[in-house]
């Protein structure tokens, strides 16, 4: 069974974007972009929902730095609102149950899987026990007044075991964890699922 990594970029206060701020909060350091380009995961299939697909495919079409490398990567979009044909190269649309489809993808894929954004999809996959790694890159900004796309709202309680960390120039922090979904706070009955 292949590994599934959930990937997010976030502000320190847990937002995935902010009104009026440029992509990556204007802090996409050359070191971070280089890491993205050289990552062995750069060719792993990407799972995403319709909202992320709309955003990322439009950014890729406009030439946003760092998005051009995604054109050749296999992408799977889970949506009941999108219809074929999708315009972003190497993209497949799945309109059936995402949990069942991802479970099958983990069994059938010849490479590990990863997500891109897609807050509600990732939350559902985590709850279903399909997420093997949870990785965030924390950008050193607080966007309390302008932040949009709160990442962790509606999430279950999750214990995270740190398995990798790295600091990029500009203070960007990569944190990678093995997640364990909890039934509630530790010590208050059956804790781990």
Automatic annotation (TrEMBL):
Signal peptide: none annotated. It holds the Pfam family RibD_C. Residues 4-173 form the Bacterial bifunctional deaminase-reductase C-terminal domain. This is Dihydrofolate reductase family protein. It comes from Agromyces aurantiacus.
